[in-house]
Amino acid sequence: MSISVVIAYHSGYGHTARQARAVASGAASVPGVTAALHDISALDDVLWQALTDAEAIIFGTPTYMGSQSAVFQAFAEASGSVWAQQGWRDKIAAGFTTSAGVNGDKLNTLSSLAVFAAQHGMHWVSLGLPPGWLYSTVGDVEDLNRLGGFLGAMAQAPSDAGPDDAPGTADLRTAEHLGRRVARVAVELRHGRLVGAA
Ligand SMILES: Cc1cc2nc3c(=O)[nH]c(=O)nc-3n(C[C@H](O)[C@H](O)[C@H](O)COP(=O)(O)O)c2cc1C
């Protein structure tokens, strides 16, 4: 049976949606894994069932006013009934965010996503990449993890650029990396659980 990775995201203007598609593409590149994108602005049964069935959930939101969007927070609060049943306990979790500023306080958003996952008893997967670009004199703007985050995948989109033009390729490749890493952990955990149950 294939392993389901769900990318549960919100995007007001399309930039985080572009990042979400890159995360999904990375996850889907791992054999045995299916990746599904779910826009959490529609809190319907299809969404909740997909999240119930997922081995891993990767949360994504734009950074608005230094934290997750109000739409994402509405989703988080609506998950309270899942929390009461500990329905996502021991699933894998990870996160990503896009903002306009190079820094933009994105770390605060990722921290908030990690706390949200921890409240649900999930296993948080970090980005797992060293910082690129300005971290050393030989760094390049096209480096993976050019924004230098550790907790999740960061992307930057100029506020006057449309989602066809931003985020740029380095941030999209970083997002793909996160999706691939989460999918690999999901495969490893599935195998480990099968061994543990035998
Ligand atoms: C209400 C609002 C608040 C924002 N706050 C921030 C912020 O705190 N830091 C930042 O760098 N950009 C901020 N931005 C810019 C967005 O993060 C940026 O445009 C991002 O690409 C939007 O992603 P989206 O297209 O997925 O909605 C804000 C934008 C809006 C509309």
From TrEMBL:
Residues 5-183 form the Flavodoxin-like domain. InterPro entries: Flavodoxin/NO_synth (IPR008254), Flavoprotein-like_sf (IPR029039), FMN_Rdtase-like_dom (IPR005025). PROSITE patterns: FLAVODOXIN_LIKE. GO terms for molecular function: FMN binding; NAD(P)H dehydrogenase (quinone) activity. Pfam families: FMN_red (PF03358). PANTHER family: FLAVODOXIN-RELATED PROTEIN WRBA-RELATED, FLAVOPROTEIN-LIKE PROTEIN YCP4-RELATED. This is NADPH-dependent FMN reductase. It comes from Actinoplanes utahensis.
